[in-house]
Amino acid sequence: xKKITITIDGYSSCGKSTLAKQLAKKLGxxxxxxxxxxxxxxxxxxxxxxxxxxxEAVKEALRSIHLEFIHNQITGQSDMxxxxxxxxxxxxxxxxxxxxxxxxxxxxxREFAVAQQQKMGKERGIVMDGRDIGTVVFPHAxxxxxxxxxxxxxxxxxxxxxxxxxxxxxxxxxxxxxxLRDYIDSNRxxxxxxxxxxxxxxxxxxxxxxxxxxxxxxxxEDAI
Length: 224
Ligand code: C5P
What we know:
This protein is α/β, with parallel strands linked by helices and 224 residues long.
């Protein structure tokens, strides 16, 4: 069967990655979490005290960064490796979440990440989620989805996810972080978060996971 490119963009914690993973599994496609790449770059900048407002320092640091997704046999998912180190748990921490949108707004960082994302999607048969995938990374994708959900529901979902790992986290902290990231992501100069003109909106506030998957599988059939 013909393989296509599927892009899923949207606000933070809309359930993009959950849907993208399930969709990729069902279709036998490759799933790429583009946000993990921005998170890994941010982690490197924090660890090496790189000033991301200094373009030269950013360019220099990017030359030392090697990113790779490697399949994890135990979880069945792809883990993000930064210079051969599995950074999967680290990049999900609040320390990274607090800075990632600032780092992702830097032109050189985006050029670096987008070039790699485009390479990964060359063969089609890919589901990639992020903020600029349908607008910038794969503007000719056959199926583009723009996800939204009620902000209160998004905060609740992310809080539950983070609380599992960190019992000190507060709902207020999570709410502030989501609002800040959405604001920076939507208002940055380079590739701001936007719905592509030809993207289909999926508001999943009231949909179960199986309902979303059924709906999107129908869209995939229509797009092939
Ligand atoms: O998807 P996730 O929430 O892990 O992404 C973390 C951050 O990475 C986002 O808040 C955004 O600042 C940035 N990002 C981006 N472009 C993408 C994916 C993520 O700017 N394609």
